[in-house]
Amino acid sequence: MENRTENNRLLCIRDLQKHTAANVRYDISAWRALLPGKFPGYVVPSSRRLAAVGLRLQRRLITRHDRIIHGELAIVCVFLNRMRWVVEVARTCDPDMPLEICLIWRPGGASAKPKEEPPISQVLGIPLKPRPLGVAGLISYRLWGINKARASKVLSVAGISQVLYRHELSPLPPSSQLTVTPDTVDISRLAFDEVTGISYMRPDAAVGALHTARCNLHDWLMGFFEARRDLYCQIPDRPVRLCEIRFDMKAWLIHTKLTVRTDEAIGQAVVRSFTDRIDRSIEAITISEIRSHVNRWEERPAAPAVP
To answer: Which residues pair with 179 in a beta bridge?
Structure first.
């Protein structure tokens, strides 16, 4: 563990040295316009400052450099309760909530505790996303993310740029439609190995091994879209009339758009949208975290024997 920490620190120092010379300036004007006019902190303005903040955290924040350049996310420092918090902020496709908080780090590099997040969210004016609860919820969330990435890879290799799911709930009866771009590819002929579980406890010899089952891609996508539709369509007193979910392999994003009719007389509609990133590295990260957790558990000193 000490060797890994020291190696990470040296990599952070190397990043700082490299970007002290390069010092690429970021265009942060759009982020400033979306954040509160005055908040106790700043948007990281350059690659040199990004590397310096990463060195403080002992985390290689510079790996986010390309995504910052392309305007996908920003790193924001917030000074609160005499502490410097580092926040990863990303864009959404929702005009009512254009930003979302992805990660918050405490001084020293540990992730913020759940009770520490709301004040930072309030200072930045960005609502917190709901998170899965409990170990079972976390494992389910990771499996969901891994299978999203696996399905996306199969679609991308097949030359498919997007899959669009439309579900109309009104007028009754509801109807669903799945379209593929280009439409010359038959996804019913495609399959992938769906991850159904992960070995994360001893005495299983292959800690972090994935348990998989062969799955038809069309059937998996329909199940995925229907589960996502049911999750987002629960809006009390404002029934959703149209749900559109787009699996975008070019941008590695999943866009969900809900249309809610509010005034039948004039046909006025309210549209709410949500965006999730397809994390192509989630599988390797998850396996690494499980093995690291098991190693830390086994390295703990044994409990004293009871006389």
So the answer is: 164
Per-domain residue ranges for the chain?
A: 2-124, 134-299
Element (H, E) at 167: strand 162-168
Q: Where does the pLDDT of residue 304 fall: very low under 50, low under 70, confident under 90, or very high at 90 and above?
A: very low
Residue 116 backbone dihedrals phi, psi, to 5 degrees: -90, -15
Determine the residue type at 5: T
pLDDT in tens, 47-62: 899 888 888 888 888 8
- Cα 80 to Cα 105: distance, rounded to the nearest angstrom: 13
pTM: 0.53
DSSP readout, 242-253? EEEEEEETTTTE
Element at 196 (helix H, strand E) = strand 191-198
Nearest to 107 by CA among 92, 86, 91, 88: 86
**To the nearest whole number, what is the mean pLDDT of the chain?**
80
Cβ atoms 298, 283 nearer than 8 A: no
Find the helix or strand (DSSP H, E) in which 105 lies: strand 99-105
Place of tokens 């000490």: 2
Helix (H, G, I), strand (E, B) or coil at 112: coil
Angle at 148 between CA 142 and CA 154, to 5 degrees: 140
Going by the DSSP 8-state scheme, the letter that residue 188 receives in this structure is G
Q: Residue 10, SS3?
A: helix
Cis amide prior to 40 (ω within 30 degrees): no
